């Protein structure tokens, strides 16, 4: 881990940042890289096989929390995980992820 001030990513982002990163996300959706990601047909979080058209673009660190629309922060996500991530608090989401990763599932 580089000695970066990670705290900065967890401050609420300003409106300019959100606007800029959402525009970048739209561009990224049109890229060959993203089409490749969709073509894998798999949710980054739960690992389920999903139809490419059922996958959504998801920011690991949400844009509103300072996340960027970069290849390192953007993943494919199934609808189930997408809605979980929206409605859970970050700490609850972390627990959900931990359950998914435990051998044998939930
Ligand atoms: Zn999923």
Given as residue ranges, the uncertain stretches (5+ residues, pLDDT < 50) are none
CATH architectural arrangement: Orthogonal Bundle
Strand order of the largest sheet: 1-2
CATH topology: DNA Binding (I), subunit A
Rough outline: flat
Listing every helix as H and every strand as E from the N terminus to the C terminus, the arrangement reads: HHEEHH
Compute the number of strand runs.
2
The residue fraction in helices comes out at: 40-55%
Mean pLDDT: 88
Describe the structure.
With 106 residues, the chain is mainly alpha-helical. The protein has one domain: DNA Binding (I), subunit A. The chain is built from 4 helices and 2 strands, in the order H-H-E-E-H-H. It has helices at 15-29, 32-40, 79-87, 90-101, and strands spanning 56-59, 74-77. The chain has a two-stranded antiparallel ribbon with strand order 1-2. It is flat and about 45 Å long. The structure holds zinc ion (ZN).
Summarize the structure.
The protein has a single domain, classed as DNA Binding (I), subunit A. Helices cover 42% and strands 8% of the residues. It is built from four helices and two strands, in the order H-H-E-E-H-H.
In terms of topology, how is this protein built?
Blueprint: H1 15-29, H2 32-40, E1 56-59, E2 74-77, H3 79-87, H4 90-101
Antiparallel strand pairs: 1-2
The chain binds zinc ion.
Zinc ion is lined by residues 43, 45-46, 48, 77-78, 80-81.
């Amino acid at each position: 881990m580089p000695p970066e001030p990670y705290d900065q990513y967890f401050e609420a982002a300003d409106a300019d940042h959100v606007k800029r990163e959402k525009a970048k996300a739209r561009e990224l959706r049109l890229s060959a890289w993203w089409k490749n990601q969709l073509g894998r047909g798999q949710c980054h979080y739960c690992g389920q096989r999903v139809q490419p058209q059922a996958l959504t673009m998801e920011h690991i660190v949400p844009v509103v929390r300072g996340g960027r629309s970069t290849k390192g922060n953007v993943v494919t996500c199934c609808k189930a995980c997408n809605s979980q991530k929206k409605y859970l608090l970050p700490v609850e989401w972390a627990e959900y992820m931990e359950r998914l990763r435990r051998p044998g599932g939930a």
